[in-house]
Design a protein that fits this description.
The chain is built from 4 helices and 11 strands, in the order αββββββααββαβββ. With 202 residues, it is an alpha+beta fold. It has an 11-stranded antiparallel sheet with strand order 6-5-4-3-2-1-11-10-9-8-7.
């Protein structure tokens, strides 16, 4: 699920047109084969947020806990500098920040929020790009291309205009370890030009 090889933080992201030796369906097949037997995992992450307007970088660290047995459970915890936790179980998401009362979101009642959470789970390995189990069908959500560099392939997702994701994101890149075919870097590029880069390690 999460490979060991990591690019350096701040490394320029390969563009969607970067040449690769396989098609997007072939790359997806390798990704999903690597994730097929996954039932649970724990991973640390470093997130770097870049604000285009102010040319600023903000760095956060945290931990991801994931369970696939029964209802999918995803716990996304920021440890530094501002502790917070998002726990997603089925259609419910609970956000806890410091001493504030927890906020509970029901994605079954909010189609826009549901679309975002479904795709987040998909990017992290819960579901399939190829069989429509992402909830709405990936072909309807994205144009897909292969990018990256030798030994570090990337699946580049270009959200289509008019979709929920297309309103927020210009590009999503899933960078993989070329030996394990597991995710080790996630890049989210917003329509505003702001970016979030998340590098995972076990």
């Amino acid at each position: 699920f999460f490979g060991q090889a990591q690019p350096q933080a701040g490394e320029a992201s390969p563009g969607p047109a970067a040449a690769a030796s396989m098609s997007a369906p072939e790359l997806i097949q390798r990704m999903e084969a690597a994730q097929r037997d996954l039932r649970s995992l724990t991973a640390d992450f470093v997130q770097t947020s870049r604000v285009k307007l102010f040319k600023q970088e903000m760095r956060s660290t945290g931990r991801l806990l994931y369970e696939r047995a029964g209802q999918t459970r995803l716990r996304w915890e920021y440890l530094q500098p501002d502790p917070s936790t998002m726990l997603m179980v089925g259609d419910k998401a609970t956000l806890r920040m410091g001493n504030l009362p927890p906020q509970v979101f029901d994605t079954a009642r909010d189609p826009n929020l549901r679309a975002i959470f479904v795709q987040l789970r998909l990017w992290l390995g819960a579901g399939s790009f190829s069989d429509g189990s992402s909830g709405s069908g990936s072909a309807a959500e994205y144009d897909m291309r292969v990018g990256g560099a030798p030994g570090r392939p990337a699946l580049v997702l270009l959200p289509k205009a008019g979709t929920v994701l297309g309103k927020t994101f210009a590009r999503v890149e899933l960078h993989l370890d070329g030996r394990s075919w597991q995710l080790n870097r996630l890049l989210l590029v917003e329509q505003s030009g702001d970016e979030k880069e998340i590098i995972f390690s076990r």
